[in-house]
Write a structure and sequence with these properties.
The protein is an alpha+beta fold and about 675 residues long. Among the domains are: about 10-90, Roll (Ubiquitin-like (UB roll)), CATH 3.10.20.90; about 95-150 and about 160-170 and about 205-305, Ubiquitin-like (UB roll), CATH 3.10.20; about 370-480, PH-domain like; about 570-675, Roll (PH-domain like), CATH 2.30.29. About 30% of the residues lie in helices and about 25% in strands. It has 19 helices and 24 strands. The protein has a seven-stranded antiparallel sheet, with helices on one face. α10 (about 285-300) crosses α17 (about 550-560), α11 crosses α16 and α11 packs antiparallel against α17. The longest helix is centred in the middle third of the chain and has 20 residues, at about 310-330. The radius of gyration is 28 Å and the shape is globular. The two termini are about 50 Å apart. One of its GO terms (molecular function) is integrin binding. It is found in: Cell junction; Cell projection. It comes from Brachypteracias leptosomus. This is FERM1 protein. Keywords: Cell adhesion, Cell junction, Cell projection.
């Protein structure tokens, strides 16, 4: 019997469900509590009543109705708002999660379900030895792709299960964060803290990490391609609306997995969300480079990003003979081969500068005058009701604008027209085989975009003018340190495209053991016979055959970055005052409004011109203010507006990174820029 004095006037009964594996012990417990009891005291009271001797340190209270964790153990029940009708679940904070990586491999590991997704991804990347975790996030698989898979053979589940890489003994399994030393914070070789032996100079792992050398090989190297049948079964977006669906499932980085309805052993996609790959270094980023390469490869194969036939063959050549064959060779899998490392460093010394955006210490030093370009080019203006006109003019490129004159002699006078390229869209219009070197400029005007084409005569001229246009669109001049690397990048991409038929290389395509359907998108397998594709891939391969494995992957990434649609994430939105839906493309430096029917860009807004952005959470509307009194507002139709809000804030956060900093991120700044005021 309990005396009435023990009840007290303010005490009440609280039902708590405990997540444990002991069948002889009940799951539900009734506790008598008061409102001034703190969460830590409630845990102690519960554990004493359970009477099971085990480690409860990873356990916390999950409030089912409110969908939130009660992690502040010093808060009282009254402060948390917990009353008698609350359903509390005492469960582990770290649970098993299946993650599908960009290389389509599935890993199973313990992840914190109570930490914010931003922190959880950071811990995951430390286990997988991927630096710069801020570039990645977790994505729910689009429903359309899941529906398509359900129609396929049910037996496929067995093969998927066998392919899962179990990393159950990860450092976070015990509730600890990932080991801080999985990669070096300084660019010097590091040593194993347990045995004291030097770690490999291309990739490092610790003896207490589940990422063994064998597992690391799975993540750091490409493996044989999937069959053409498997590729045909995978979801391929056909329209901009389909592409928008792919980006609808990004998780909120400021909330935990449990708060977003993710359950134990669910499957999520780990993907590079932000397309700004900072500080890529082959010596430390074997896994990271391979996963970026794989994400690019699948985006091209599944036609998530458009490319020309010429470009598709280059991508196929880099995949088919180089990455696939070198990955299978034993030499490529020798992590400790120092001579190979030295070769990679030498081969990529120039390429690293290109990928990182230039090195101001040795490029265009001590410039006092802004350079200018002057040359004969042809101007093409499309006409709606007639054929387009092509006329030669004398063009002068200075600062961020291009002017054209009737001829060189009249260049001292007033130009026929001056085009300001700041904020414009620059699209390559190139066919190397046909000797076509064009630059498509979409210049913002009051009622949309003004379309202009510039035609160059040869590769070097095109590279110089294209690089100048790209920089001008970002508000930079040719005096910027990234100009020469941009020219070099364009020329190297053109060189890969510029192949000639070699009878010796393609004399007998049938003798080559290759399935070309694995290396090009289904559109091209329908257009050409297998024998024709093999021959054309072999032609393209001649220009990439001397590359090392890492260089081939970096060249592939570089070529992917050169595509006009690179880095664009699409969402269906409705702008304020407009009665029809449009597509909004979000990139690392701009927003693009695109016509949903034609796919043509309508307007571009640069982040560099943005003054502020905010969200009206009641009507779920994003409002952005730019310079010169330009403001836009829109609601998102294909996803939650929080996703776009986080994208904008995330890209601005990433633009603040510097090589002078160590790799510790300002997590508070990230949440301040992306979290919103919900």
């Amino acid at each position: 019997m309990i005396s009435s004095s023990e009840y007290g006037s303010h005490s009440w009964e609280l039902v708590v469900t405990v997540d444990h594996q002991h069948e002889e012990v009940p799951k539900e417990f009734l506790l008598r509590v008061t409102g001034d009891l703190h969460i830590g005291g409630l845990m102690l009271k519960l554990v004493e009543q359970i009477e099971i001797s085990q480690d409860w340190s990873d356990y916390a209270f999950w409030w089912e109705q409110k969908k939130c964790w009660l992690l502040k153990t010093h808060w009282t029940l009254d402060k948390c708002g917990v009353q008698a009708d609350a359903k509390l679940f005492f469960t582990t904070q770290h649970k098993m999660l299946r993650l599908r990586l960009p290389n389509m491999k599935t890993v199973r590991l313990k992840v914190s379900f109570s930490s914010m997704v931003f922190r959880a991804v950071s811990d995951i990347c430390k286990i997988l030895n991927i630096r710069r975790s801020e570039e990645l996030s977790l994505l729910k698989q689009p429903e359309d792709t899941l529906k398509k898979k359900k129609k396929k053979d049910k037996n496929s589940k067995e093969t998927v299960t066998e392919d899962i890489l179990n990393l159950c003994n990860s450092p976070v399994s015990s509730g600890l964060s990932g080991s801080p030393g999985l990669y070096s914070k300084t660019m010097t070789p590091i040593y194993d803290p347990v045995s004291g032996t030097p770690a490999s100079s291309t990739i490092t792992w610790f003896s207490d990490s589940p990422l063994t050398e064998q597992n690391c090989s799975i993540l750091a190297f490409s493996h044989p391609n999937c069959s053409p049948e498997t590729l045909a079964e995978m979801y391929q977006p056909r329209t901009l609306a389909d592409k928008a669906k792919l980006n609808a499932g990004w998780l909120d980085s400021s909330r935990s997995l449990m708060e977003q309805g993710i359950l134990e052993d669910d499957q999520l996609l780990l993907r590079f969300k932000y397309y700004t790959f900072f500080d890529l270094n082959p010596k430390y980023d074997a896994v990271r480079i391979n996963q970026i390469y794989e994400q690019a490869r699948w985006a091209i194969l599944l036609e998530e990003i458009d490319c020309t036939e010429e470009e598709m063959l280059i991508f196929a050549a880099l995949q088919a003979y180089h990455v696939s064959k070198l990955s299978l060779s034993s030499e490529a899998q020798d992590f400790t081969c120092e001579s190979e490392v030295d070769e990679v460093e030498a081969a990529l010394s120039n390429l690293e500068v290109t990928l990182e955006g230039g090195n101001s210490s040795n490029i265009l030093e001590d410039i006092t005058d802004i350079p200018k370009l002057a040359d004969n080019l042809r101007l093409v203006r499309p006409r709606k009701l007639s054929l387009k006109t092509i006329k030669p003019y004398w063009f002068v490129f200075k600062d961020t604008s291009v002017s054209y004159f009737k001829n060189k002699e009249s260049a001292l006078g007033e130009p026929i027209e001056k085009l300001n390229l700041k904020g414009c869209e620059v699209v390559p219009d190139v066919n190397v085989a046909a000797k076509k070197f064009g630059i498509k400029l979409l210049i913002p005007v009051a009622d949309g975009m003004n379309e202009v084409y510039l035609r160059c005569d040869e590769e070097n001229q095109y590279a110089r003018w294209m690089a100048a246009c790209v920089l001008a669109s970002k508000g930079k001049t040719m005096a910027d340190s990234s100009y020469q690397p941009e020219v070099h990048k364009i020329l190297s991409f053109l060189k890969m495209k510029n192949w000639t038929m070699s009878p010796q290389a393609v004399s007998d395509p049938e003798s080559i053991d290759m399935k070309p359907e694995c290396f090009v998108s289904p559109r091209y397998t329908k257009k050409y016979k297998s024998k024709q594709l093999v021959a054309r891939i072999l032609e393209a391969h001649q220009n990439v055959s001397q590359m090392t494995l890492v260089e081939a992957k970096l060249r592939f990434i570089q070529a992917w970055q050169s595509l006009p649609e690179f880095g664009l994430s699409y969402y269906i939105v409705r702008f304020k005052g407009i009665k029809k839906d449009d597509v909004l493309g979000v990139s690392y430096n701009r927003l693009i409004r695109i016509d949903i029917a034609t796919g043509d860009p309508i307007t571009t807004w640069r982040f560099s011109n943005m003054k502020q952005w905010n969200v009206n959470w009641e009507i779920r509307q994003v409002a952005i203010e730019f310079d010169q009194n330009v403001s836009i507002a829109f609601t998102c139709r294909s996803a939650d507006c929080k996703i776009i809000h986080e994208y904008i804030g995330g890209y601005i956060f990433l633009s603040t990174r510097s090589k002078d900093q160590n790799e510790t991120l300002d997590e508070d700044l990230f949440h301040k820029l992306t979290g919103g005021q919900e």
